[in-house]
């Protein structure tokens, strides 16, 4: 298996909801393991996500977890995720869904380097960058 890079996003109790949202955006089937399944459940965390993963039909992989009580967590500023490629329709579709209930910081539009690029923060505080490769001249 080749090496691959994918994000691992931590939450404070909303990992399952986030994973369901990302499944709506990208498709695929999430796998979820709870703290109770691993026998490591802090009080009140029995049904929280110790490890979740979503592998999508497009080959993307997202991993999520709920931080246990007492573990430092700052929403949104410790991670950003980049989606890039040359399929305009596909990438715009992801953008539309991610930005719909989020905040756009850079509108999805042509940039000086020739690509269409945008940046938004979704409803869970995660920053996304979408880059659609420009067409060669």
TrEMBL record:
InterPro entries xref list: Glyas_Bleomycin-R_OHBP_Dase, Glyas_Fos-R_dOase_dom, PhnB-like
CDD domains for this protein: PhnB_like
Domain Glyoxalase/fosfomycin resistance/dioxygenase: 5-130
Regions that span the bilayer: none
Pfam family, one: Glyoxalase
Recorded superkingdom: Bacteria
Protein name in the entry: VOC family protein
Source species of the chain: Streptomyces roseolus
Lineage: Bacteria, Bacillati, Actinomycetota, Actinomycetes, Kitasatosporales
């Amino acid at each position: 298996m080749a090496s691959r890079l994918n994000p691992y996003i931590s939450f404070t109790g909303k990992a399952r909801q986030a994973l369901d949202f990302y499944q709506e955006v990208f498709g695929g089937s999430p796998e979820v393991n709870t703290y109770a399944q691993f026998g490591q459940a802090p009080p009140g965390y029995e049904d929280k996500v110790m490890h979740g993963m979503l592998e999508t039909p497009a080959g993307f992989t997202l991993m999520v977890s709920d931080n246990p009580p007492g573990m430092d967590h700052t929403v949104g500023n410790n991670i950003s995720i980049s989606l890039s490629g040359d399929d305009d329709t596909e990438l715009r579709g992801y953008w539309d869904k991610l930005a719909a209930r989020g905040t756009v910081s850079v509108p999805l539009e042509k940039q000086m380097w020739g690509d269409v690029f945008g940046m938004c923060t979704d409803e869970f505080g995660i920053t996304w960058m979408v880059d659609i490769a420009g067409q060669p001249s």
